[in-house]
Amino acid sequence: MSQTSLDASARLLEQVNDAIARRQPLCIQGGGSKARLGRPVAGELLETREHRGIVTYDPTELVVTVRAGTPLAELERALDEQGQLLACEPPHLGAGATVGGMVAAGLSGPRRPWAGSVRDFVLGTRLITGQGKHLRFGGEVMKNVAGYDLSRLMAGSFGCLGVLTEVSLKVLPKPRVVANLRLELELDLALRKLAEWGQQPLPISAACHDGEGLHLRLEGGEGSVTEARERLGGETVEPGFWGDLREQRLPFFSDSRPLWRVSLPIDTPALDLPGIQLVDWGGAQRWLKSAAPADDIRTVVSRAGGHATCYGACDIPFQPLPAALMRYHRQLKAQLDPLGIFNPGRMYAEI
Length: 351
Description:
Blueprint: H1 9-22, E1 26-29, E2 44-47, E3 54-58, E4 63-67, H2 72-81, E5 84-85, H3 99-105, H4 112-115, E6 122-128, E7 134-138, H5 148-153, E8 163-170, E9 172-173, E10 177-183, H6 187-197, E11 204-209, E12 214-220, H7 222-232, E13 235-236, H8 240-246, E14 259-263, E15 276-280, E16 285-289, H9 294-303, E17 307-311, H10 323-336
Parallel strand pairs: 1-2
Antiparallel strand pairs: 3-4, 4-8, 5-9, 6-7, 6-8, 10-12, 10-13, 11-12, 14-16, 14-17, 15-16
């Protein structure tokens, strides 16, 4: 258990019940590192940082249970000491990042297409609901499916469905051998190569085209990594690129134009949009710096079969939902948060 462990769930539950009684909207916040994502919330601040600490951790079972306010860096240090990691490689985007914020934002790093998303590693949660109840969903093993889907639903919900107080996560061993390569390839050729390599047993765990060349990360056993390095060629580079990409520290992100995160089919060619692009996730995620109107960007992206999210000041940060899907979102919100007090409007004005 963490030396800074503190169970503040009683205080959080009391604040939620008080808000329910007053019909007072709440702005749920951990470290605030993801505050620029989504719409601003007008509500009374409910902070989770006090509710922190590793509750249980069994390295032999590859499972850790953590309170939501626990600093993400603290959890990662504890896992690193045991030779383990969060395989989804979640971005911090700020020194105050918490485990609850990691789950609520649902963001994953460069390893996402090969290892899975945050949602894929959530085994169970504890949640304060809009009925003022503190409930546990799921469990600490993958085979325990009771309530499992609801726990996974918390990933990417941005606090709109309840106050996450605790989460159980599947962790994985760190790879034995890592190699970082850079190949001089134009984007179109790099995308074709990635599609070809995706059909082969290569130990690729990250792939990003920076506009000039293709960065690859290889992870696995010594034999497979060595063989792949010899086969793929390129030059060996320092590993810092992946951390800078994940945390948006590359020079690309310093451009003053609005930042867009675009999700697309992996083999989509470069988008015909003004601005500059960075191709991540082997082609499935594109970062776009562009001053083009939001409607123009989303029209181009939708035609390519994708969706776009705006980071920062934007009237509609998340891709607008079709009417049928929005109806499901509203029904779910009504079930878990009938008074609409949890982060109202954070994702969409309607919820």
